[in-house]
Amino acid sequence: MKKILLSGFEPFLHFKVNPTMKIVEELNGTNINNYEIHGVILPVDFEKSAKQLLEKIDEIKPDVVVSLGLAGGRYKITPERFAVNIKDGEPDNNQVAPKDQLIVEDGETAFFPTIPIREIVDRLIEEGLPAEISNTAGTYLCNNVMYSALHHAKINNLSYQSGFIHIPASHELAIQHGKIPSWSHSDLKRAVEISLDVITSEAN
Ligand code: PCA
Predict the structure, then answer these.
(1) Residue 187 has pLDDT above 70, yes or no
(2) How far is CA 157 from CA 64, 172, 195, 197, in A?
(3) In this predicted model, what pLDDT tens digit does every residue of 93-122 receive, in sequence order?
(4) What is the pLDDT of residue 150?
(5) Where are the domains of the chain?
(6) Is 2-203 a domain of CATH 3.30.470.20?
(7) 177 annotated active-site
(8) 19, 26, 106, 195: which has the fewest C-beta neighbours closer than 10 Å?
(9) 126 classed as catalytic
(10) CA of 91: how far to CAs of 83, 95, 158, in Å?
(11) Do residues 191 and 166 lie in contact, with contact meaning Cβ atoms separated by under 8 Å?
């Protein structure tokens, strides 16, 4: 059976829950189109998160790597169009806040994802779920893991498809947070399942 490595993140900053965590935990061990889903929850930590994802990739040898992140404040499911070679931003969970640093010295400036982002957006909309391509994954941890997975594939000549999908807050998070738009957990999870269905059907 083929394998999908699906990553989510732990809570960070003022977001006391991370909806990606619950989705990954629930999908871990399930199958989709003959692909087995292997879930991993990454720390929000510039030192550790990409390292842990790459170690999992080397251990599991997946055919597809999809990373999920919370974009608190966004209204739609947003597959990312680029990952850029920059880390810069708010402090991570270890209070590290890099400024203007490269993720990989001498790495490519940017990578396009290798998952079919347009098809994912079209299918989500067809299924009644708001979605659009995002033109920036930011320069925080989400961009960091997206860049790292694409760079890892390139330099090691690995053929897995890889990309990043940002999701809005869950209702659970919005109740605690106060001022962000939110989706139900079941719709968020369905959007992720549909996205994985598109990726794995296209690959077959
Ligand atoms: N979202 C953050 C990091 C962890 C997460 O879920 C981001 O967009 O970079």
Answers:
(1) yes
(2) 14, 41, 25, 25
(3) 999 999 999 999 999 999 999 999 999 999
(4) 98
(5) 2-203
(6) no
(7) no
(8) 106
(9) no
(10) 20, 5, 32
(11) no
Q: For this structure, is 142 an active site residue?
A: yes
Strands 78-79 and 161-167: antiparallel
Q: Is the pLDDT of residue 204 over 70?
A: no
Q: Which residue's CA is the nearest one to ligand 1's atom 9? A: 142
Phi/psi region, residue 143 (left: phi>0; alpha: psi -120 to 50; beta: rest), is alpha
Which of 183, 100, 84 has its CA nearest to residue 135? 84
Pocket of ligand 1 (CB under 6 A): 9, 12, 18, 20, 44, 69-71, 138, 140-142
What is the per-residue pLDDT for 203? Answer: 60
Locate the ligand 1 atom nearest the alpha carbon of residue 141 and give its number: 9
The token duo for 24 is: 């990954």
Which of the residues 38, 151, 152, 166 is marked catalytic? 166
> If you average pLDDT over residues 37-49, what whole number do you get?
98
Taking alpha carbons only, the member of 42, 140, 47, 144 closest to residue 90 is: 140
Q: Which two tokens stand for residue 135?
A: 């033109």
Neighbours of 96 (CB within 10 A): 11
pLDDT of residue 115: 98
